[in-house]
Amino acid sequence: MSRTKKVSQSSSRAEADNKKLKKRKKRKVTRKKVIPRLPKKKKKEDSWNDKNKYSPQLLRGMKDILPAEQSARDYLLKKLTDLANAYGFKKIITPILEESKLFEKSTGLDTDVVKKQMYQFTDLGGKKVVVRPEFTPSIVRAYIEHGMFNLPQPLKFFYWGPAFRYERPQSGRYRQFHQFGLEVLGSNQALIDAEIILFSQTFFNDLNLPINIQVNSLGCAHCRSAYREELVNYLNSHKKSLCPDCQKRLEKNPLRILDCKNLLCQDIVSRAPQLINFLCKNCEKHFTKVLECLDEANVVYQLNPYLVRGLDYYTRTVFEIWPVIGEKEERGKSSLSALGGGGRYDTLIESLGGRETPAAGLSYGLERILQEMKTKNVRIYQARAPQIFFAQVGESAARHALRIFNELQSQGLKVAENFGKTSLKAQMKVADEMGVKLTLILGHQEVKDKTIIIRNMKTGNQEHVDVNKLIKEIKKRLK
Ligand code: HAM
């Protein structure tokens, strides 16, 4: 055999070997493919545990409000409602579910809230509905629908309840949160803008929470279109340095760029033209009046020419309430989020089919206020807590206990009980933990004698009193 033949023979063998190897590899791969895959582990989010059993868990961004959190919450809501009543606001409750269109036409189709954050679905009747992301549009709907423009104006409403936004959860940002709010419909007076800002200062001062109130004017549609042109010209010259989101906003909603949290955008914005210099005469006059009223009422505020707010319906005055970082607090500015915000919305009612009706309002985020109260160690005054604990021992006492307890409550006394516990020792422990001033003790002998024991929790002193004179005796000791 010639050398060349040998070489070609051996090379063709090598080729054949190679082919075999490739085939085997291929086969191997194919074989690998048919190996049955183990079922994928269910992610924890699916609420299924390793044994494929359902283990219920809270949805992301939602929050259980446990008994331990209730006293601070009740305290906060009581303070808010008391102050709202004192300012002449009347409570209004609207449904959580509304037509999607209501928010599309008011909050605005281009806003993050409507575009990205609404929990919406088609109901069984085929209607597109949404769990409210805010209250203002609902209040306006109710105002129009119930013909409230026929009542003496302005109308002042307050409300509180849950709102829902599908946001990325983080500290102070939930998907279900609670708002408290005020709305004044039917007045264009600058005094009203000042009144709701003053409400905020009074409320947060009273709560002992330091705040920073930021105020701006967005003018009317007329001022805004002149400003918009100027702003777009300026921003176009910095387009390349803007974040991708703002580059998009530049086309559709350039004013929102003023609100961007990106540091580079903020730097560009800090040299941008200011809306306040573009206000028409009427809007300027209105804003000057608002500021004069605020000064008159000693409200401390800061002018923020770049405050725009993220909802479409605002005209003229807008404001936000921010927490202030205490000297000893270890947290950065970025961990702060607005406690509340609001402003005037003079064209919203008309745009939803009502009469031309100026209006203004605000909303606070209750979770954010509660979080701030915790951070700042705000004291929840004991006066809100019950001052009396009612303990009962034995069957005959149990029968009378509810009646007496009810009588005390109907007299406006703040009484607590824990009738589920039968031993006196356990009940006294609860009374002690509550820090009440007096404990009433009703046992078998007392029922027989028509008396009740009043125990002074501080001194430990116990006295039998006539049960028919109980209320008088309690009031005497609570003075
Ligand atoms: P807003 O600025 O969208 O305004 O919300 C008001 C407040 O609700 C915020 O300042 C914040 O405290 C709280 N909040 C908003 N989103 C969340 C969230 N995901 N988690 C926790 N808290 C949140 C309005 O809603 C307007 N309706 C205010 C208004 C009333 N303007 C005129 N009248």
What does this protein structure show overall?
With 479 residues, the protein is α+β, with helices and mostly antiparallel strands. It is built from 16 helices and 16 strands. The chain has helices at 3-34, 67-86, 100-108, 112-116, 136-145, 190-207, 221-236, 244-252, 263-269, 281-296, 348-351, 366-375, 395-410, 424-434, 444-449, 470-478; strands spanning 90-91, 97-99, 119-122, 128-131, 155-164, 176-185, 211-217, 302-303, 315-323, 340-344, 359-365, 388-392, 415-417, 438-442, 451-456, 462-466. The strands form three sheets. An eight-stranded mixed beta sheet has the order 1-5-6-11-10-9-7-8, sandwiched between helices. It has a five-stranded mixed beta sheet with strand order 13-12-14-15-16, with helices on both faces. The protein starts with a helix and ends with a helix. The model is unreliable at 1-10 (pLDDT under 50). It binds histidyl-adenosine monophosphate.
Which radius of gyration do the C-alpha atoms yield? 33 Å
Q: What does the average pLDDT come to? A: 88
Low-confidence stretches: 1-10
State the major sheet. 8 strands, mixed
Q: Note the gap between the termini.
A: 126 Å
Bound molecules: histidyl-adenosine monophosphate
Instruction: Give the helix level as a range of percent.
Output: 40-55%
| Gross geometry | globular
Indicate the proportion of strand residues: 15-25%
* Global structural class: alpha+beta
Output the strand order for the largest sheet.
1-5-6-11-10-9-7-8
Given the structure, what is the number of helices?
16
Please report the total strand number as a whole number.
16
